[in-house]
Specification:
This protein is mostly beta strands. Helices cover 9% and strands 42% of the residues. It has a single domain, classed as Jelly Rolls.
Length: 254
């Protein structure tokens, strides 16, 4: 490479870095502007899974593997479990964040995406080192629970599909409002790949599926609500099943 070409490459590289570091131009609204869908991801999302290995994840490899760009959880007739087990992301304990991913699950399968969760002892299966307690985006192949907010090993059903609920701690969660029919929203899930989006900010927990709002949970139970915690994917007690996760990415706000 000539000296002149080397200098030009260096100048261009520094220019690209400087441009990337420039703050975005402020948005100046016009009277004609209206909210619009995002074209692709917003900036700031980082991948959590390399698609090839379980690096950065901790779980029982009897049930979990990386395969063709997908995080696979599978129970076979020879590995049926007596208690739920998770694969846990080890690179952080997010507080306020957005999580996006795609999932696909067999018809009889049951799984969930835990967040603001912690690893806990399993009294049913003491050698299960990957039990979790915490909020969960519930999902299943039969679409009975998909989109609910279920606090695993905790306060159980804290948010139900089609509802805005508030947890107060002195009684079951209170329904503040409804925004959709539960059965109609269940049909949002497909038998193929489905896109999950979690928006978790402060005490407000929003679950989206395939672009539709599924549940909003407002947790005012100060004594019992977790402020941060681990993210994990579940394989559930029951018969043989398979669940797949891909395009797992996170954007944090703290």
């Amino acid at each position: 490479m000539s000296r002149q070409l080397a200098i030009l490459c260096t100048v261009l590289a520094f220019g690209a870095i400087a441009a990337a570091q420039q703050p975005a131009a402020p948005f100046v609204p016009k009277q004609s502007d209206r909210p619009a869908p995002v074209d692709g991801d917003e900036t700031g999302f980082q991948p959590m899974f390399d698609g090839k290995t379980l690096n950065g994840w901790d779980g029982d490899t009897k049930y979990w593997r990386a395969e063709n760009g997908v995080l696979v959880g599978e129970i076979t007739p020879a590995t049926v479990i007596k208690s739920n087990t998770f694969i846990i992301w080890t690179a952080g304990r997010p507080k306020d964040f957005e999580l996006k991913l795609d999932y696909r699950i067999t018809a009889g399968g049951n799984s969930g995406i835990n967040y603001r969760s912690t690893r806990v002892p399993d009294t049913v299966t003491p050698d299960n080192k990957f039990a979790m307690r915490g909020y969960q985006f519930d999902l299943d192949g039969a679409r009975r629970y998909v989109g609910n907010n279920y606090e695993e090993k905790g306060r159980l059903f804290v948010g139900v599909r089609g509802q805005v609920t508030r947890i107060v701690g002195t009684r079951p969660p209170v329904v503040l409002s409804t925004f959709g029919d539960e059965k109609e929203l269940a049909a949002t899930a497909t038998d193929d790949w489905n896109a999950v989006h979690l928006v978790i900010r402060g005490n407000t927990l929003m679950h989206f599926l395939n672009g539709r709002l599924m549940s909003i949970t407002i947790d005012d139970d100060i004594a019992n609500r977790p402020a941060d915690g681990s993210i994990g994917m579940q394989v559930h007690v029951g018969g043989p099943m398979k669940v797949e996760y891909r395009n797992i990415r996170l954007k944090t706000w703290q």
